[in-house]
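Hello forum,

I keep getting stuck at the same step: I have a sequence, I want structure tokens, and every attempt I make locally crashes halfway through. Rather than fight my setup again tonight, could one of you with a working pipeline run this one for me? It's a single chain of 92 residues.
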Amino acid sequence: LSPPRESRGLRARAVLLDPGETMPWHSTGAREELLVALAGRLRLEWHVRVRGTRKRSLSAGQCAFLQARVEHRVVNPSTHRAHYGYVTGSAR
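Reply #2:
Ran it on my machine without issues. Output:
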């Protein structure tokens, strides 16, 4: 059984962040990203050329979309473990 053509090339992963843990700054290159908060509280930070660094808090069930080539990181600002998932795909 092969995946539908539209889903080929998608990549997904789940991540656990301990209290106070921060993922390093990174970009998914030419890939767009959908980030989904699964448990706990997260802070998504990303760079915008004209406006500097932007921040958005996410709670379980909320999601954020990142365009290709956007440098970003995910922070767990809470005292509890946080869990999130992401899916990346090629921007067309």
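The CA atoms of residues 47 and 73 lie 9 Å apart. If your local run keeps crashing, start a new thread with the error log.
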